[in-house]
Predict the 3D structure of the following.
Amino acid sequence: MKLSAIPALVSSYGFVLLLALSIPSAAQQQTANPEQTQPPKSMQDLTIRDLWKEGGLNGRAPAMVKWSPDGAKVSYQLTDDAGDRSELWYIDAATGKPAVLVAAQKLTGMSEAPPTGGKKMNERLQERRHNPFGGYYWSPDSKHLLFDARGQLWYFRLDTGTGTQMTTSSDPQTDPKFSPDGHFLSYVKKHQLFVRGIDRDQAHEWQLTSAREDAPQERLRDLGIRKGKNKNQDTTKLDENILDGEVDWVYAEELGVTSNYFWSPDSKQVLFLQMDETNVPVYPIEDFMLKHPTISEQKYPKAGDTNPAVRIGVLGREDRPGKVRWVTLPPGMTYEYMPRFGWVNDHVIYAELLNRKQSQIDLIFADLQTGKSRVVLTEKSDPFLEVNDLFRVFKSGDRFLWGSWRNGHTHLYLYSFEQSNPVAAEAKLLGQITKGDFEVAAVDALDEAAGIVYYESNEAGPEGDQFAAWRERNLVARKLDGTKIAGQYGGSRTATFAPDQRHFVEAESTYAQAPAMSFCSAGKQIECARPFFRSRPLAFQFAAPHWLQLKAEDGTPLEGELLLPTVSAGQKIPVLLNPYGGPQGQEVVDHWGGSNTAFDNILLRDGIAILRVDNRGMGNRGRKFAQVLYGNLGVTELQDQLAALDQVLQQFPQLDAGRIGWWGWSYGGYMTLYAMTHTDRIKAGFAVAPVTKWELYDSIYTERYMGLPKQNADAYAKASPVSSAAHLHGSLTEAHGTSDDNVHMQNTMQWIQAMIDANQQYSLLLYPGKTHGIAGEAARTQLFERIESHFVRELK
């Protein structure tokens, strides 16, 4: 619910990392719109409209950075500031020279093909109207590219520079994948899986799955549908509710699922998740901009509702509907969610099964040849745990990495299993790889030959301070026995590794340094060349934050960030709190904040100080820090924010305790309403897209932190601002997009009714057709101008 020439370094992999190399910016490569590319010359010239123009303040960074499978090229998309012209570029890994991979006119030609039909697809196209393609994919032979352009798929030959449109259906094709051998292409269409041969003798499409043939028997029985080709049977409900290989909204939003099907390593089989949404309630989203408004129905399970029923099946590459072999689970196995699954080898699969309470994950292995399956590892944490993406199976087929916060923090563990028969016994713990008061956030690479794992975490460097490191995202290399061998520390870093697992592209930034990208090599040391890309520098500097060490009421260390305006001596300064407050979020971070930081600086120019504090319950601080808010949303967060505020007021006496504002978005919007109904210290607030009753938010997120509504009715009522509307203090403005598919506008409607019932005055901004992010230059400019004027009026 979340920005001087040095000699070249020659690596053993054949890379020449040219330290003086710099990718020409999109503006340098092509003629850009002058209006869009002229940045403000000083902080005084900076306007809110500057923040949300196409290209932003710093221009566009390379997007969709990918290595070719052979490791010879690093490709990326470059788009001009106006968003009207895109090209696909690459850097030759052997020479370090950049060149155009696919020219703008080629991409434009693809994007001019007729779009696929369907209201939802057209809405997505509207949102990315300046991007000619939604994604691109390297073929396994590194000689071809696949483009997703307006819902159609194009196969592009790099040697001839020609593209062939592979699909022409009026229905969009999504989540395309090459088979590992490169001879076949799969994708999702009309909620079902399709495969197409790429070779000339197999260049035709066939359907792998079918709702009619592969739906659960009880669902067919409920709808009175029989398998077969009887065209008189109405299968509409079946076709709309059985998703084979497609990801639904709640899994994507709350479990981080990006794909629900995978090719086997030998390219002979396809493993997929079937989601049955028949009994999932529908939320109507109305389009008010038409003469006769239309309704878009969204499958959305709210807290306590029925979730999608899920199971995994496997098909041969050339099978047809009705041939699915459903994976047999261990006897007596029960679960609610299946957030992760995939292949261990050509005939053994894994799956993570999560109970509804989200307090237990069972890792199972299943042998598709014998039909046997086994729970090889069970992870428990009461009252809840968080799903992560740290699981990695070794190519050797006898070990895996596992991420767990069983010792209080998310760390990496090494397990072994029987290579010849993975389902023969439970996995064996070999050791804990990472230890300490920090969180492992991601595994970037696993160099099996060298026995090294590269991961991102907020651990401190050799001479670093762990308190300061909590706001960092560092890249660290350790041997599998836990020995640290290298690291890149400070600021925020992410890495995209080459297939050899020893070279990577690093993206880094700090609060004061805009994003940059570099080529790096890894081993006993991590060495990075001079950045090949740097964001366009600003003509002015943002104000430096005061990093604060604060404490919660129980003494738990809290991180804070204070921005102070420059004012005449003796003047009292109003303070604006802007926390997120909610689970998994982190606001006090040392990375480039872009337009959000620029908005802070506009408020500083107005004479308003900005305070952010990461309260207990938020992310990247361990299990105890996260679990403290279970069943008690709002209470702990507000206690910590007010305790931190009092400490800051004491440390900085120029701040005015009588002029306190509060604003936030999403969970931050919820916190704004909760604070203004549970303390009289807030003089003014602004809430954007807030949750107002947790019964109205989705099942997976809400139940993880609140349990089921029927079992915790009092906790739900206590956490709801709607229940406390009569106690509102201060001047409040609220904003919401009418097409918000995340936090539905229903939340705001019920809050408004509670305000009316309590005889409270309210101010409301609605943004027609806008979703949760209220995107677009015009809408965002208007919204942030209203936020600024609200606090200038109420606090100044």
Notes: The CA atoms of residues 301 and 593 lie 33 Å apart. Confidence is low (pLDDT under 50) at residues 2-22, 25-36, 118-130. The two ends are 32 Å apart (CA to CA). The first strand starts at residue 9 and ends at 10.
